[in-house]
Amino acid sequence: MSTTTAWVWLVVAGLVEIAWAAGIKYTEGWTRLWPSVAVLTLYLVDIFLLSIPMSRLPVGTAYSVWVGIGSLGATIAGIALFGETATPGRLLCIGLILAGVVGLKLQAR
Questions:
Q1: Lower Cβ count inside 10 Å, N or C end of the chain?
Q2: CA gap 90, 20 in Å, rounded
Q3: SS3 letters across the chain
Q4: Residue 104 has what pLDDT?
């Protein structure tokens, strides 16, 4: 697998992380069966997807980028889907996470 392909898989895994992280809200404390099943299934798929780029990329970089994509996306999903606050400080922190993800990608060349 090429490094480019590994990065593509990592982004896909990050997007799936956003889905299951945001989906946890719909489980209502794991009391709703089908949302809970969907979240657990997405989580298992996500771990499998993360394992693919980990075979080619440095572990710390791959994991940090995966978490960064998930954190960034989950925060944006919270703002867009659940009406969570979008204060300047919060947006600045999101920007810092994005800068870290981009920085790790640039350093992995």
A1: C
A2: 22
A3: CCHHHHHHHHHHHHHHHHHHHHHHHHHCCCCCHHHHHHHHHHHHHHHHHHHHHHCCCCHHHHHHHHHHHHHHHHHHHHHHHHCCCCCHHHHHHHHHHHHHHHHHHHHCC
A4: 83
Amino acid at 49: L
Angle at the Cα of 21 (from 11 to 49), degrees rounded to 5? 35
Poorest-confidence range of 18-22, 45-49, 60-64, 99-103?
Answer: 99-103
- The C-alpha atoms of residue 6 and residue 104 are separated, in whole angstroms, by 14
Check whether 14 has a pLDDT greater than 70.
yes
Q: What is the pLDDT of residues 32-84, one digit of tens each?
A: 999 999 999 999 999 999 999 999 999 988 999 999 999 999 999 999 999 99
